């Protein structure tokens, strides 16, 4: 009885401390952190492979990470993708209008289009801001899939879908990511339109915030998944 009562809390605290330490020590080394991130998510998926709800939530995390990496590789490198990204921002905000985060995306998309036109007409060397809109779009898609995950699971695995705490943690983190990206995004306009070139507060601290949120995701993915697994193991 004591083991059943306290083991989940002990393991959550233990691995929580380990993941926080790993997040701190891997800051500034994106390659190592990416391997840690993917390793923990894949290991957790294998560990909880019999629970389709956990596996589905972890699959959404992996897909988000993949799309973010692709966005990092291709959006800043090719200016031609800016227009499709801005149009996608308008379409996504309309399609997911029920989500309050989409209203932030719409405002940012309109501001981006106006800013790009201003920079083009004034022949200003425009910064690459489409990357931030791309991340916001990914986050809104993730919120949509998380919100509807139970329905999608039931579609392919009837009566197997159920809500888990990891869903709501991911749902909230992605909203916070959109807000964080928006602050960085708006700071670009302060620098490149209003002329306050030293406005770098959000830009300088964004790496710490996003790294911290990514560390929180891998900790939540493991701890919340393991909380679902332990009672079944002890019962068995």
Q: How would you describe the overall organization of this protein?
A:
With 236 residues, this protein is mainly alpha-helical. It has one domain (2-235). Helix content is 81%, strand content 0%. It is built from nine helices and no strands. Helix 1 packs antiparallel against helix 9 (201-235) and helix 8 (165-192) runs antiparallel to helix 9. The chain starts with a helix and ends with a helix. The mean pLDDT is 84.
Task: Reconstruct the topology from this structure.
Elements: H1 2-25, H2 30-47, H3 52-74, H4 82-95, H5 100-121, H6 130-147, H7 149-156, H8 165-192, H9 201-235
Helix pairs in contact: 1-9, 2-3, 2-9, 3-6, 3-9, 4-5, 4-6, 5-6, 5-8, 6-8, 8-9
Q: What distinguishing features does this structure have?
A:
236 residues, mainly alpha, 9 helices
Compose a concise summary of this entry.
Helices cover 81% and strands 0% of the residues.
Largest sheet: none
Q: Termini separation (Å)? A: 14 Å
Helix content: over 70%
SSE order in H/E notation?
HHHHHHHHH
Q: How many DSSP E strands?
A: 0
Q: Pairing-aware structural class of the strands and helices?
A: mainly alpha
Uncertain residue ranges: none
Radius of gyration: 20 Å
Tally of structural domains = 1
Which descriptor suits the 3D outline? globular
Mean pLDDT: 84
Q: Given the structure, what is the number of helices?
A: 9
β-strand percent reads under 5%
């Amino acid at each position: 009885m004591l083991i059943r009562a306290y083991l989940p809390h002990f393991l959550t605290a233990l691995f929580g401390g380990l993941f926080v330490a790993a997040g701190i020590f891997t800051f500034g080394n994106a390659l190592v952190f990416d391997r840690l991130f993917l390793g923990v998510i894949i290991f957790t998926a294998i560990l909880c492979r019999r629970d389709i709800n956990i596996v589905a939530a972890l699959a959404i995390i992996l897909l988000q990470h993949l799309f973010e990496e692709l966005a990092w590789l291709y959006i800043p490198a090719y200016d031609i993708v800016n227009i499709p990204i801005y149009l996608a921002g308008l379409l996504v905000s309309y399609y997911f209008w029920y989500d309050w985060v989409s209203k932030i995306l719409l405002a940012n998309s309109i501001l981006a289009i106006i800013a790009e036109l201003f920079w083009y007409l004034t022949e200003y060397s425009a910064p690459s801001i489409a990357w931030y809109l791309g991340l916001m779009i990914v986050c809104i898609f993730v919120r949509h899939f998380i919100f509807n995950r139970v329905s999608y699971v039931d579609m392919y695995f009837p009566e197997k879908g159920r809500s888990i705490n990891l869903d709501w943690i991911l749902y909230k983190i992605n909203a916070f990511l959109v807000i964080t990206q928006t602050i960085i995004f708006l700071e670009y306009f302060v620098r490149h339109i209003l002329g306050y070139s030293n406005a770098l507060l959000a830009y300088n601290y964004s790496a710490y915030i996003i790294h911290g949120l990514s560390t929180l995701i891998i900790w939540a993915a493991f701890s919340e998944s393991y909380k679902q697994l332990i009672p079944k193991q002890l019962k068995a």
